[in-house]
Design a protein that fits this description.
115 residues; 50% helix; 4 helices; three-stranded antiparallel β-sheet; alpha+beta
Length: 115
């Protein structure tokens, strides 16, 4: 398992902790030279995974709402997004961590072209 990858611009090591600090795979910047980065090898597959997992998260959230509504009646009136954040966010965080590890270990970093 790799511990760092070189920045394509300044060649300084970008660590896994730096990858975890990126807000999304589409807004990556080198922590040293601030060059905008893109990943080209794994990101298309991650996008397909996101498209597949979003309906699953919606289904699970609705299932949790229906199961808990008999115990906690107010949960029916809460927005689905709040219930998701409160109850399923740990699963989502694990999913994001797995994406980061996959991108870090199997990905190919390149500089974004300036437009």
């Amino acid at each position: 398992m790799k511990t760092s990858v070189p920045c394509p611009n300044c060649q300084k090591a970008i660590t896994l902790e730096d990858f975890e600090d990126f807000s999304s795979p589409f807004t990556m910047k080198c922590p040293y030279c601030q060059a905008k980065l893109k990943e080209t090898k794994v990101t298309p597959f991650l996008i397909v995974g996101v498209i597949a997992i979003i309906p699953l998260f919606i289904f699970l959230t609705e299932l949790i709402i229906s199961l808990l509504s008999s115990v906690i009646p107010i949960i029916e009136k809460m927005p689905t997004a709040i219930v998701f954040l409160g109850l399923l966010y740990p699963i989502y965080a694990l999913y994001e961590r797995a994406n980061g590890l996959l991108m870090f270990n199997k990905g190919n970093l390149q500089l974004k072209k300036r437009q």
